[in-house]
Amino acid sequence: MGKDRSLGRTGLEVTRMGLGLAALGRPGYITLGRQEDLPADRSVDALQAQANAVLDAAYDAGVRVFDVARSYGRAEAFLRQWLDRRDLDPGDVVVSSKWGYTYTADWRIEADTHEVKEHSVARLRQQWALTRQQLWEYLDVYQVHSASLDSGVLDNDEVLDAMAGLKAAHGIKIGLSLTGPKQAHTLDKAVAVHRDGHRLFDTVQATWNPLEPSVGAALLEAREAGLGVIIKESLANGRLTERGRSTLSDGAALAIDRAVARHRTTVDAWAIAAALAQPWVDVVLMGAVTEAQVASNLSAQNIEWTDDDSAALSELAEDAEWYWSYRKQLPWR
């Protein structure tokens, strides 16, 4: 695997698959079965060691894209420690981070609130300073975390001007990640945001998977407009794995069984292959927390996508409102 894809018109060359540290940077997260994958010791040192092992496995297999956020516990610090340990140059990797959520769980799994969203200019400036301290020379893309119409961030001229200022002053790319059943509407609005005669946003990170493909048409239009497209949650927070079968309808489970048998592969690999098969996708992020999961996820690149696979997708799509309502109920593990 090499840097063989342009990230939209950003000028950044990327690998088709990347690694996100949402589930590695903190002791609790919402992925199904995660409690069985991580050590009982959820101390900072133990999770740094786990992150190092997974980052090593991904990098040694050719992955060069890594995604973190201020709200992912210590993910930024874990990534920086690993970059230093591997003695990597900034040009060796493509790194993205996000602002807009604050981690509030204080390294506890049983916290009442794990993260708090705030899309104010004060939060942007505070978190930019912290991210710059951790990752400065490595940071390629800085993203609004879970931008939505409800948060008002795309109507906040003070915030938009501040992000445009960071872009002009530091040469970084500006992106946004999306969430919720109205991802497409948010993206349409973001594509129309301009500053100084140029589109503000260079990249979009969206949830797309066989269960929740509703943002697909909007992502196609965004890619045609020049944005780099990054896919997150391609496994639907573990629902598109062997462990997630009980969360699927009987028809969806059977359709996946047929596809997996046809390719002699695993559920996770097939689901990731579905994302890779979309021509408007530049990068698909893994959420792996073990070396074995890295290997299984990366095997998606060996699947030759067929018309039968595309047809299977029509049997899997859930109502977007239902999908996001179910996701909201997933417990932190």
Can you walk me through this structure?
The protein has helices at residues 34-37, 44-60, 75-86, 121-135, 157-170, 183-191, 216-224, 250-263, 267-276, 291-298, 307-313, 320-328; strands spanning 5-6, 13-14, 17-20, 65-67, 94-99, 101-103, 115-117, 139-147, 173-178, 194-195, 198-199, 203-207, 228-232, 283-286. The chain is an alpha/beta fold and 333 residues long. Strands 3-4-5-8-9-12-13-14 form an eight-stranded parallel β-barrel, surrounded by six helices. Strands 1-2 form a two-stranded antiparallel ribbon. It has a two-stranded antiparallel ribbon with strand order 6-7. It has one domain: TIM Barrel. The chain is built from twelve helices and 14 strands.
Descriptors for this entry?
single chain, 333 residues, alpha/beta, TIM Barrel, two-stranded antiparallel sheet, 12 helices, 14 strands, 38% helix
Briefly say what this structure is.
This protein has 333 residues and is of the alpha/beta class. Helix content is 38%, strand content 17%. The strands form four sheets. An eight-stranded parallel barrel has the order 3-4-5-8-9-12-13-14, surrounded by six helices. Strands 1-2 form a two-stranded antiparallel sheet. A two-stranded antiparallel ribbon has the order 6-7.
The structural class is alpha/beta
Unreliably modeled segments: none
Number of H- or I-type helical stretches? 12
What is the CATH H-level superfamily?
A: NADP-dependent oxidoreductase domain
Give the strand order, joined by hyphens, for the main sheet: 3-4-5-8-9-12-13-14
- What is the architecture at the second tier of CATH? Alpha-Beta Barrel
- Total count of domains: 1
CATH topology: TIM Barrel
Proportion of residues in β-strands: 15-25%
Query: Alpha-carbon distance between the termini?
Result: 32 Å
How is the main sheet built?
8 strands, parallel, barrel
Order of helices and strands: EEEHHEHEEEHEHEHEEEHEHHEHHH
Query: Which CATH class applies here?
Result: Alpha Beta
Question: What is the CA-based Rg, rounded?
Answer: 19 Å
| Shape, per Cα inertia axes | globular
Give me the count of strands.
14
